[in-house]
Each structure stands twice: as C-alpha cells, then as structure tokens.
Amino acid sequence: MNRLEQFSIIADDLGTVFRFLSVGTVFPLFIALYYREWDMLIPMGLVPVALFTLGTMLLNFPENKREAKVSQALFSVAFIWLVCAFIGAIPFTIGIDMPYLDAVFESMSGWTDTGITMIRDVDSTPHTLLFWRSLMQWMGGLGIVAFTVVMLSRTGLNPSRFYRSEGRSEAFMPSVVQQGLQMWKIYLILTGISIIVILISGVPLWDALNIAMVAIATGGFSVHTAGISYYDNALLEALIIPVMIAGALPFKIYYTLYYRKKTEFFKDEQIKLLFMLILIGCTIITADLIMYRGLEGFDALRKGVFMAVAGATSTGFQTGSVNLWAPVTVLILIFLMFIGGSSGSTAGGIKLSRAAMAYRGILWWFRRSYISCKVIVPFRFGGKIIPKAQAETEVSRNILIIILYMLTIFVAMILIMHFETPDHDTSMVLFDVVSATCNNGISTGFAGPDLSPFSKIVFIFIMWIGRLEIFAVIMFFMGLFKGFE
Questions:
Q1: Contact of 470 with 116, CB cutoff 8 Å
Q2: CA 52 vs CA 57, 83, 353: distances in Å
Q3: For residues 32 and 29, what is the distance between their CA atoms, to the nearest angstrom?
Q4: Are 81 and 112 in contact (CB under 8 A)?
Q5: Rounded to a whole number, what is the distance in angstroms from the first to the last CA of the chain?
Q6: How large is the average pLDDT for residues 258-272?
Q7: Which end of the chain has fewer beta carbons closer than 10 Å to its terminal beta carbon, N or C?
Q8: Region at 221 (left for phi over 0; alpha for psi -120 to 50; beta for the rest)
Q9: pLDDT, tens only, 115-134
C-alpha cells in the first residue's frame, strides 16, 4: 500500500475533526464585534475558514474503509496538533505583524497549555487576540481530540484508539464518546464556577473570564504583560489557587462525585500525591524566600504557596521573578513542574500516576531481588493487585516515557545552548526547557522574542512533544518518512 492509500484511511476522520474545530474557533469574532476591532475580523476569520476548508478537502479524499492501525491513530493526533498550531498563528501575523515563527510559537504555546509568550506588550494587544490565546488554552486543556471525540460516533479510526493516542488513558465510562461528552460537561461547569469565584476578587468580568479559562485549563496566558502580578491582589491569588488545583485533578473524580455520589476524593492516589507535593513545595519555597531573598513572612508565604501550586499543577501563572531566586529554590520548582498534575486532567508534566507507578515499580523490583525466587511479591497500585506480567509491562512503559522526557529535555538544552550566546545561566535555560517540555509556562524570561530562530523551533517542538507525551510525535515522523507497516 503506497503512502496516499495509507493516508486515505485517516483522511475522513481528520476532515471531521478540522471541520468541527472550525466551529469552535468562531467565538473570537464575537469579541472583535463587541470591542469594535474591525481590523481583526479578517485575520481572525481566516482561522475557521482555513480549518473548514482543510477539513472539507480531507473529507473529499478517496474513501478507504480499512481499519486504522495504532500507528496511524498516533500520526493523526500529532498531525492535528501541528496543523492547529500553524493555522492558529495566522491572526498574530496578519493582525499585529508578528513574525510567523513567533506566531507559531505563540499558537503552539496556546494549544499545548504552556503559556510562554512571544508578545512583548500584552497590554496593547487587541482583545480579540487576547481571547484567542485564552480560547486556544481552554480548548487545548482537555485536548483537541477530546474536544472533537464526541462527534466521532462512527469512524474508521476508532474513537477509543483516537482518544487514547492523545495520551489519555483514563476511563470512567464504557463508551469513549460518552466519556468525552461527560468530560466537557464537567469542564464547562468548572469554568463557569471559576469565573464566578474569580469575580469575587473584584477584577473586571473580562479579566475574570480570561483568567478562569486559562486557570482551569492549567494554561497561564494573561491579558496583561505583568501577568497576575499586575493586579497586586492577594485575594485574587488566593481564589486562583483552588481553580488551578481543580484543573490538575483527575476529571474522573468529579464524575464519581456527581453521578455516582461516591466520596473517594482523598482515596485517590494521585490526589494525595498532588497535595503532598504542593505542601512540600510551599514549605520549602516559602522558607527559601525568607532565608535567601529576605522576604517578610506573609510576602514569602503568599509567593511560595502560589508558585508551588502553579508549578505542581503546570499552570504558567507566576507572581515571583524566578530568575532572582536562589538556585536551590529554582530546582524545587523544576521538580514540581516535571511531575505535573494528574492523568485525566488538563495538566502537563510526566503525570502523578506515572511518577507513582515508577516509584512503586522500582521498590517492587528491589523487593523481588532480595527475597527467594519462590516467593511471589504482589504489585499493588490504585488499591488493586496487578498480575506480574501486566505489572512489568506497565512499569516498564511508564519508566520509558519518563526517560524519554528526560532525554528530550537534555537534547533540547544542548541544542538551545549552542544556538544562544554562552553567557546564559545554565539553570535558567534548564528551567525554561523543563517548563516548555512539561507544558507549564512559568519562565525565567530566557524563552522570549529575543531567542534565535533555531531555539524558537526547538521550543515549539518540545511543547508539541510534551503535550502528546512523546510517542505520538515519534509515530508522526516514522509515518512521514517510513509509512505505516
């Protein structure tokens, strides 16, 4: 089977996704009309037009009813995210004359919920583009495919396989289509509640809307250049914290709480681990800010709690200048960003479930090494005993992904430090690379418009790689150059 025939198997499904996405990208046009930003109508209108046109072209591709392979599903998901980043960049280039490479960076940062920006003066950016940035993060929060999977009730690509190819393995309903629908219901409710909660702080509705959208999506884009620090509002920061945590919790918990009336909140291993990491992070960062930065107790606690939560939940909000912090404090935040939030949430990072699985797996292997081979050592995870063969496979797979994340960070650092001047602090480069790879968005200021074009390309790739948890991107390039076996 040649490349064209192989692509025809997935073309119809890709077309469906792009056409459905085109509907979701219309909303910024209403913002342009409300604020009378007439010059933004065409740049912003090109996004839904481009997505719809591309979708229509793919739907008219010669039909092939063969069942798609796992590798093709992975290829499709990576392709969707990449295309969305390139098309999503159009309004920035046409609307505010941003160089296209910077615009692709901004768009990829939006869709992947990263939150690192290329815009120098956010305050002077049109409302239309500010909302577009927030909308990209909000739609990308649960995943582009999770956004469209409710429409894939009958496709050759298999909704379940398509959905899980985006790095989503959580399951709380038999039907993936019904699960996608329930997740978006939960997401909409959480977003509405978040807007109301943030309004209590006294910020305008416009600000509350954008803050809530990116906070629940654990994104981090802001409508002001100074970010959350612009408001200098302790109450606002306190109200954002539970919203960030809500976005980083597994959505399965909300489903069981509401529909099955089960209160298993603190029985979930990921939730316990998340709060434990937040507590440890808050304590250490607050103490470090008092000892090394000389901050007063309340100011240190205010920054320490907010930044620890933002790091652990992979939300790019920040109220402190990380580049001025002690190296040991920076390392603590790097650790929190690398772990990230829960599987089945909007958060990035290697995920709490994967870290817990790897930790338990390593202990399990050690126990088996030091006792008689005749003794069976059970592997317990999530309150269940997992059979030996399955446990070995799952532990190996999760550790492999963690190693690939580390390898991605290491290679990206080497490349970027070769592309940039040698006077940059290595810890600051590491921080921003980890932040981008784990889709966090907290930045030292290193990753910005002054980067070389090559470094920007590396950052675009690691944001894309991190969001899709590596395997989908590997399959994308294998499919592109070798085809599908």
A1: no
A2: 9, 12, 37
A3: 5
A4: yes
A5: 9
A6: 75
A7: C
A8: beta
A9: 999 999 999 999 999 999 99
| 384 strand-pairing partners | 381
Annotate 423-437 with b (16+ C-beta within 10 A) or e (fewer): eeeebbbbbbbbbbb
Structure tokens at 397: 């797979």
Residue 69: DSSP 8-state: P
The closest alpha carbon to 442, from 273, 326, 321, 279, belongs to: 321
C-alpha–C-alpha distance, residues 297 and 31, integer Å: 42
Give CA–CA dist 180/75, Å, rounded.
Answer: 20
What's the pLDDT score for residue 155? 44
Query: What are the DSSP calls for 274-285, one per residue?
Result: HHHHHHHHHHHH
Q: Distance (Å, rounded) from C-alpha 2 to C-alpha 366?
A: 48
Tokens representing 62 are 């010669």
pLDDT digits (tens, 9 = 90+) for 358-390: 888 888 888 877 776 666 777 777 677 777 778
Report in angstroms the alpha-carbon separations of 50 from 45, 79, 226, 292: 9, 15, 33, 52
Q: What's the chain's average pLDDT?
A: 87
Q: Is the pTM of this model over 0.90?
A: yes
Amino acid 29 reads: L
Residue 240's CB: how many other CB atoms inside 10 A?
Answer: 26
Encoding tokens for residue 340?
């990230």
Secondary structure letter of residue 252 according to DSSP: H
Given a contact cutoff of 8 angstroms between Cβ atoms, the answer to whether 182 and 188 are in contact is no
